[in-house]
Amino acid sequence: MIKLDNNRKMLLIDGYGFIFRAFYALPSLTTSSGIPIGAIHGFINMIIPLLQKYQGKDDKVLVVLDSPSSKKTIRHNIYQNYKANRVKTPQDLVSQFALVREMLKSFSIPYVEQDGLEADDIIAAYSQRAIANNYKVIIASGDKDLLQLITDDSCLVYDPIKKRTVDSTIVQEILGILPQQIVDYLALIGDSSDNIPGVAGIGPKAAISLLSDYRDIEEIYDNIAKIKPIRRQNLLRECEAKAKISKKLVQLHPQEVKIYQEFTNVQWKELEQFDDAIK
């Protein structure tokens, strides 16, 4: 059930999520001098419709980026093998990161980043702050980790690929769990893309079954002797440490955000000149 009818809205854009998707989804594009700009071009084309949609006088927008200078994040302090299996980012994409920042500055699009933090943590912090200031929050991202922030009265997630707004009802339809159980669900099944171990042998169906009986991982382990079948109970016992580490990895850390900037409006119409500017 989609709500969010308040006039004051805060749009938080998962910048790198858009940039990576644009790079891999679109054909290579370069300037006349051979500079790769495909990801930038795709990024702009993806965010213009969002900026057009949220251009009310009380609407605010912020592009959130991953740590600018360090591959190590606070999650590496929890688990040193976090994202250890990631392949190296193509140089043609890496070279566009700085250009994206220059483009955002040039077109007066506010963005934020902080060393050691991923965009998800910053999005969580700004979401909390916006809600506290009576904004309704829309997070533009295809990242499933951010579904944990959904609260129908104050925060929804807009999926830019499927072009739909996700609320708690849709989360339940897709995954069979509540948004506040996303952390526990992902901690149980693990995430190979981020090298989050999870519980070996526990897949989506088993995780959903467990979370239909118990609120979270803590409650599951408080009732471990009751878990059936016994094979599932044994799997959970064997991987208890990994399950709890996985939950810490999936949880967002808004309390670590130290950099805040004022919410501002965006003069999105300037972006219509972008194609001419990059040629």
Describe the structure.
- With 279 residues, the protein is an alpha/beta fold.
- 43% of the residues lie in helices and 9% in strands.
- It has twelve helices and six strands.
- The chain has helices at residues 15-25, 38-53, 74-78, 91-106, 119-132, 168-175, 182-189, 204-213, 217-222, 230-238, 240-250, 274-278, and strands at 9-14, 60-64, 111-112, 136-140, 155-159, 164-166.
- Strand 5 (155-159) and strand 6 form a beta hairpin.
- Helix 7 crosses helix 11.
- It is globular, with a radius of gyration of 20 Å.
- The model has no long low-confidence stretch (mean pLDDT 89).
- Any idea what the radius of gyration is? 20 Å
Percent in strands? 5-15%
Shape: globular
Helix content: 40-55%
Q: Which structural class should the secondary elements be placed in? A: alpha/beta
Main sheet: strand order:
3-2-1-4-5-6
Mean pLDDT: 89
Low-confidence stretches: none
Q: Main β-sheet: number of strands, strand sense, barrel status?
A: 6 strands, mixed
**In sequence order, what are the helices and strands, one letter per element?**
EHHEHHEHEEEHHHHHHH
Count, helices: 12
- Work out the number of β strands: 6
**Alpha carbon gap, first and last residue:** 44 Å
